[in-house]
C-alpha cells in the first residue's frame, strides 16, 4: 500500500524529511501542494529539489502543505498516470483551484496499469479523508466540471488537430494574416473538449508564469517559449457557445480554472456587440450559429439587425452570425458538425459547404474520429443515423459490446428502468423529441406528456437542466441536452415521426411537431420550409438524443407503425 507523507510546505520541513528518507531525493513520487482554495499536483524523481523550485515561485510558495505519495512499485509511467488522475479529479471536485497547466495530462498504457489504478482509488480516498476532496469519485465523474474540464488526456486525433491548429495560428499571427480553422467530428468525438482545451492552452502560453518549464513529455511543450508568449501578448481570446445551457456550464468551469475567466465564454450576440476585436475566437457547435431569422425573443431579432448594420454598414439579410465572428476576430477556430443542425435558423448548407471547402483548400480542416462518449463506439453513431434516415438498405446492427441498447413497448416501463439506472450510476434521464405541447409553460401544474399512464412535464429550466433538482422527474428536450453526456438516456420518439410503409422510410409529421421556431418559415428572408426540409432537422434531433448515453440508450416509439418498423433495430431479440 502506498504511504502518503504529510508535512508543512517549507524548506526546513522538506530538508528534515530528506534527511530521514533517501526517497525524498531519489525516488519517483507524486505530490500535492495545497493551501487555502488552491492545489498543485506534480510528479518528480527528486522531491527535495522540486520543492525548492516551487518555493522560489511566488504563486506556489504561498501553498502551505505537501502530501507526497510514495510506493515501492512506482515508476515514471505510473507516476504520470496518477498525477493526471488527481489533477482531473481536483478539477472536477471544484473545491480547490488547480494551478497546473493542462498539457501534462496523459492516458498512456503500461505494464499492470489496472493494478496501479486500483491503488490510485485508494490514494484518492486517503486524500479525501484528509480533506483534500469534498466528493466521491462517482460524484466527481458525473459532474459537468469534470466532463467539461480543460484537464483532459486528448486522443491521438484530438492532439494532432490541436497541435496543427496552434502551429498554424502562430504562423498566421507572425505573418499578420487572418485565418479560419475547422474541427469536424460526429457526436461524442470530443469537439467541445478540444475547444475548451485550446482556450486553456492558449491562455497558459500567454501567461507570465515561467516557473513551470516544459517537461519534454508533452506534444505542446514547444509552444511554451518566450517567442510564442510574445506573439500572444495581452490576447483577447473568447469561446463562443451558441446554446444557453451549455454556455452556463462552461462558465462555471472557467470560474475555477487559472488563466481562464467566465467572461471569456460568450454568446454570439456578445461577440457581435463587442466594440473591441478579438485575437482568437473558438466557436463550439458552430453549426448552431444563426442565420437572419426571428430569434427566441424580440430584442434579439432587433439586435441581429443592429449588429449587422454596425459591422457591415447595412442590414444585409444574407449575413449570419458566422459573418459576425469573421468580422470580430483575426483568427477563428470552428467546431462543426452540420448533421447536428436542429432548427431552420441554424447555419444553412449554402454557408457551411463553401466554408468547409475554403478551409480544406488551405489545409485547415481537422477531422476527429475516435468515439469518446458512447461505449459502443463510432459504429453505433453511424448506425443510429442510418436507421433514422432509411435511405439505404437496412443497416446491420454493429457489435455493441456491453453497451445497453434496449427497446421498450411501454413508456412507463422505460421510465422505471431509467430511474433505476439513475439510482445505480446517476446521470440517467428521459429525453424526447418536441412532439408534445409545452402546456406547463403557462400552467405550472399542467402535464405536457401523457403516455402509458405517465404524466410528465418538460424541463422546467433551460439552463443546466441535467443538474437541476427536478430533472429526474422531467423530460429533457434537444435544447437542454445538446453538448452534454448522460450515463443512460431514455428517448421517447414522438408522433412527429411516422412510417411510410409504401416508401419504406421514416416520415415527418408537421401537425405533431410543436417547436414553433423549429418549423417556422423564415419570413425575414422569404424562405419556406417543406416537410422534407423539416424532416432533416427532426432526424438530426433524434440522432443527437439517441447518442447522449455513454453506457446505454433506451428507446420507446409512440406511433404504432413506426414502432413496428424500428423495433428490429433497437431490440436485442
Automatic annotation (TrEMBL):
Residue ranges of domain GIY-YIG in the record: 26-101
Gene3D superfamilies: P-loop containing nucleotide triphosphate hydrolases
CDD domains named in the record: GIY-YIG_COG3410 (cd10439)
PROSITE patterns hit by this protein: GIY_YIG
Pfam families: SLFN-g3_helicase (PF09848)
Domain of life per record: Bacteria
The protein's name in its UniProt record: GIY-YIG domain-containing protein
Species this chain originates from: Agrococcus citreus
Amino acid at each position: 500500500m502506498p504511504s502518503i507523507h504529510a508535512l508543512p510546505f517549507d524548506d526546513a520541513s522538506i530538508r528534515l524529511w530528506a534527511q530521514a528518507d533517501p526517497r525524498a531525493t531519489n525516488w519517483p513520487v507524486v505530490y500535492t501542494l495545497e493551501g487555502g482554495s488552491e492545489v498543485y499536483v506534480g510528479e518528480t524523481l527528486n522531491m527535495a529539489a522540486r520543492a525548492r523550485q516551487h518555493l522560489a515561485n511566488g504563486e506556489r510558495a504561498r501553498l502551505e502543505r505537501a502530501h507526497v505519495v510514495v510506493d515501492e512499485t512506482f515508476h515514471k509511467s505510473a507516476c504520470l498516470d496518477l498525477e493526471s488522475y488527481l489533477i482531473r479529479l481536483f478539477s472536477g471536485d471544484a473545491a480547490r483551484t488547480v494551478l497546473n497547466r493542462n498539457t501534462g495530462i496523459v492516458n498512456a498504457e503500461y505494464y499492470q496499469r489496472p493494478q496501479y489504478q486500483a491503488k490510485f482509488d485508494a490514494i484518492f480516498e486517503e486524500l479525501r479523508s484528509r480533506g483534500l476532496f469534498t466528493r466521491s469519485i462517482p460524484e466527481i465523474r458525473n459532474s459537468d466540471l469534470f466532463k467539461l474540464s480543460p484537464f483532459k488526456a486528448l486522443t491521438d486525433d484530438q492532439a494532432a488537430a490541436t497541435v496543427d491548429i496552434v502551429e498554424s495560428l502562430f504562423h498566421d499571427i507572425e505573418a499578420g494574416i487572418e485565418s479560419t480553422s475547422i474541427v469536424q467530428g460526429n457526436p461524442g468525438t470530443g469537439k467541445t473538449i478540444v475547444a475548451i482545451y485550446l482556450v486553456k492552452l492558449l491562455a497558459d502560453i500567454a501567461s507570465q508564469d515561467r516557473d513551470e518549464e516544459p517537461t519534454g513529455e508533452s506534444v505542446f511543450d514547444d509552444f511554451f517559449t518566450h517567442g510564442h508568449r510574445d506573439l500572444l501578448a495581452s490576447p483577447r481570446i473568447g469561446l463562443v457557445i451558441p446554446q444557453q445551457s451549455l454556455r452556463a456550464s462552461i462558465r462555471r468551469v472557467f470560474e475555477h480554472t487559472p488563466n481562464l475567466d467566465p467572461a471569456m465564454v460568450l454568446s454570439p450576440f456578445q461577440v457581435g456587440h463587442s466594440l473591441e476585436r478579438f485575437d482568437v475566437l473558438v466557436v463550439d457547435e458552430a453549426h448552431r450559429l444563426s442565420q437572419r431569422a426571428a430569434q427566441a425573443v424580440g430584442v434579439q431579432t432587433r439586435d441581429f439587425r443592429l449588429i449587422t448594420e454596425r459591422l457591415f454598414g447595412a442590414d444585409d439579410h444574407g449575413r449570419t452570425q458566422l459573418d459576425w465572428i469573421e468580422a470580430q476576430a483575426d483568427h477563428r477556430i470552428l467546431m462543426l458538425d452540420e448533421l447536428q443542425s436542429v432548427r431552420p435558423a441554424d447555419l444553412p448548407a449554402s454557408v457551411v459547404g463553401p466554408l468547409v471547402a475554403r478551409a480544406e483548400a488551405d489545409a485547415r480542416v481537422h477531422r476527429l474520429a475516435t468515439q469518446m462518449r458512447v461505449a459502443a463506439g463510432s459504429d453505433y453513431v453511424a448506425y443510429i443515423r442510418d436507421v433514422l434516415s432509411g435511405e439505404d438498405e437496412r443497416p446491420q446492427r454493429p457489435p455493441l459490446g456491453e453497451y445497453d441498447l434496449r427497446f421498450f413497448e411501454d413508456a412507463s416501463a422505460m421510465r422505471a428502468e431509467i430511474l433505476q439506472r439513475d439510482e445505480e450510476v446517476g446521470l440517467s434521464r428521459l429525453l424526447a423529441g418536441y412532439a408534445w405541447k409545452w402546456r406547463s409553460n403557462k400552467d405550472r401544474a399542467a402535464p405536457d406528456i401523457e403516455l402509458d399512464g405517465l404524466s410528465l412535464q418538460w424541463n422546467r429550466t433551460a439552463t443546466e437542466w441535467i443538474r437541476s433538482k427536478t430533472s429526474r422527474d422531467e423530460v429533457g428536450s434537444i435544447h437542454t441536452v445538446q453538448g452534454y453526456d448522460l450515463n443512460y438516456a431514455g428517448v421517447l420518439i414522438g408522433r412527429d415521426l411516422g412510417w411510410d410503409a409504401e416508401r419504406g422510410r421514416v416520415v415527418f409529421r408537421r401537425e405533431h411537431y410543436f417547436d414553433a421556431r423549429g418549423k417556422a418559415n423564415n419570413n425575414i428572408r422569404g424562405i419556406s420550409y417543406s416537410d422534407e426540409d423539416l424532416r432533416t432537422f427532426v432526424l438530426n434531433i433524434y440522432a443527437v438524443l439517441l447518442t447522449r448515453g455513454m453506457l446505454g440508450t433506451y428507446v420507446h416509439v409512440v406511433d404504432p407503425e413506426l414502432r413496428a418498423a424500428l423495433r428490429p433495430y433497437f431490440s436485442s431479440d
